[in-house]
């Protein structure tokens, strides 16, 4: 009872604190329960965005003209790879994550841009699709890697709340995402990631007493994974079959996850390996495989480290000695 009382007091204080800092904050009443919109701690309400100016890659601002005509915020401009998805994406820079690995692999070749949203399903993704990927942007991404489905595949809650999205609706949302991304430019490439499996026992142990009616099973993951793969084959989008890739490891249940769902460093290595396989095998012009892309400012220089002969220099631009894995 003491713990519950302290939690209630903390929740009350938290609500007042949010109201004080963010007067636009709202509470959403569903199923006779109020929940604070916690995202407002990190961003203002949508209505307030219009009054702010953000510099785009084209040198203009979202709320007005840029200070320099055609100037880049940071140059030279590199190809942009956007990671778009739920927590598997948001956490991809944590615990030796696959986003961080890709940033290292593509250092001085492409900028990896993170657009990950913890807890999101495909229904929420399509609601913001045009904001995350505006068609009139000055520059468009060269590659978008998309992951949604893990939260969609969770069993429905009896209240009607929660992230579950019925399979037919999930397919149509992913179809809409694919169509929008393919329409951005003739050179914007798209890769979807299918649902990986989960460690059901670890999930149940980790959420007991926290979540209500949480249903996350490998059978549901399999169904949504297969649906994603079939859709990609239909609409001509490259896909990484994470459901199959993870289970090639005998120890995948314990090696690939931190909590039964989110990826450990070992799980992330599988994701990177499979993405690089797709990029190497894709017949895209220009190629987006890291070994085929130019290295920024990669010319030889007399300022490079001096070689053993004392007369020449060694260009370190493409050295990869530091990597635990020498990626193909």
UniProtKB/TrEMBL annotation:
Molecular function GO terms recorded: hydrolase activity
The UniProt record lists the keyword Hydrolase: yes
UniProt keyword Hydrolase present: yes
Pfam families, sorted: Lipase_GDSL_2 (PF13472)
Domain SGNH hydrolase-type esterase residue range list: 83-269
Alphabetical keyword list: Hydrolase, Lipid degradation, Lipid metabolism
Domain of life: Eukaryota
Coiled coil: none
Any single GO BP term: lipid catabolic process
InterPro entries: Iah1-like (IPR045136), SGNH_hydro (IPR013830), SGNH_hydro_sf (IPR036514)
Signal peptide per UniProt: none
Family matches, as CDD domains: Isoamyl_acetate_hydrolase_like (cd01838)
Family in the record: Belongs to the 'GDSL' lipolytic enzyme family.
This protein's name: SGNH hydrolase-type esterase domain-containing protein
